[in-house]
Amino acid sequence: MNKETSISEKVNDVICSTLTIDSISFKDDLIELGLLDSLALVQLMVEIEQTFNIRMEPENFDFDDYRSVKSISEMVIRSLLTTPQPVSQLQ
Amino acid sequence: MQTPLSSSVTPKTHVIPQKKNSHQISSLSLNDIDAVVALSQLYFPRSSESTVDQLRKSMLDLYFENGALLPNVSPIVSRSANGSVSGFLGVVSKTFRYQNKEVVLANCHHLMATEEARNHLIPMRLLQHFIKGPQDVSFSDGSSESTRLLWKRLDGEVVACESIYYKIPLRPLSFVAGFLLKSHQNWMAGSIRTIANGTDTIASKARLALFHRKDAGIETVPLTSDVMCALMKKLRPYYRLFPQHTPHEIDRLIRILEEETRYGKLQKVVLLDHQKEAFGWFIYYAQKGGICEIIQAVCLPGKETELFRSLTRHAYDAGGVELSGRLMNSQFQTPFTKQSISLPGRMWTLMKSDNVELKHTIQSGKAFITRLEGDLWVL
Predict the structure, then answer these.
(1) What separation in angstroms does the CA of B60 have from each of B53, B102, B108, B371, B374?
(2) Which domains does chain B have, with CATH numbers?
(3) pTM of the predicted model, to two decimals?
(4) What is the ipTM of this complex?
(5) I need a surface site. Which of A30, B218, B356, B375 has the fewest CB within 10 A?
């Protein structure tokens, strides 16, 4: 399993547990589907930060980053690239 | 990138409606007022106590003058695809003086959104839109824990010294009885209240009540905007960030306060010392049930004890059971903290600014922002 897939799966798990859903597809739009309200978004951000040990800087905050497993995974990868992490945390 | 995940969403707890995210955010216009009033009555329980006409008038007074939006920073609404108002964030702004420069502080309040808009993150979008406005400092005052969480995510911070709410029991037995009976309403409630009120009255007549001292020589007279402006000039040297006011603006704010009847009768008093010099004022609402909500309690430095005594005495005489309000930085280590019950975090004062100096000034209590409370930014 490559690193990106691993991240996507973890993101998927975080979304499912935070939003109490069983599963979601890679490109499903969380906002379009009405799955996220503002507080759920904050909760999701916190969970993502804790899971990947990253800090999402408020000045870079963009709603579109939180639309799907795909966009969140991409954002996590960007964050990980800008803040180098131990390899063990990515697996 | 691979897509190893399932291809459909399966909710555990609810059916997911399909929605389009087409909400647009724009400035409030006169045509939106009725829709905002309807939202307010729906989502703010206290608003339902006012008639539609009262709420409309209050919003027109607060946001518009002669039909035009007040300058600087305006309230915002979100609209759904069909153009109907789906969310609202009230905004009032004020010009302050900071080291010979003018700066604009804006306070947001009454964040509300329809159920459908909430699923499109409208509350957070409205806050983000507001924060990105042209003002030097953004505030959200009297905020809930939910708003605090959103605000922090938008890079905002809590103003700790402005976030302490306090309660001062004026009739201690009635205060305790009221507190206990809130959660235990039964047939005995009326009797217990009567006994507590009676005991408090006897205690007061026997001069046993806690807050019955009145400083000799201190006079209380009705507050006027001219006296308030004159006293503000005396207060200005003690603060680094201070509001710029005209008597006309203060008149307008006090008129709005007086017309607001949901919170009780407005009491506004100025304190005069032995030489008949004004040294402080207080403004509060006295509700029928004895709850007195302070809008402002302000005095020259060193006069906090006199202010406290005059205020508590005045509220007691007005039939108050308890006084509650927000602590000012200058009131730490005075009777306002020593003889009250502090409730930190019950209401948050939140701030966002890119100006480090302004942030530091506000966080260190050197800004005269006193009480902003919801839909009114008095000073």
Answers:
(1) 10, 26, 16, 21, 16
(2) 7-161 (3.40.630.30), 165-170+211-346 (3.40.630.30)
(3) 0.80
(4) 0.74
(5) B356
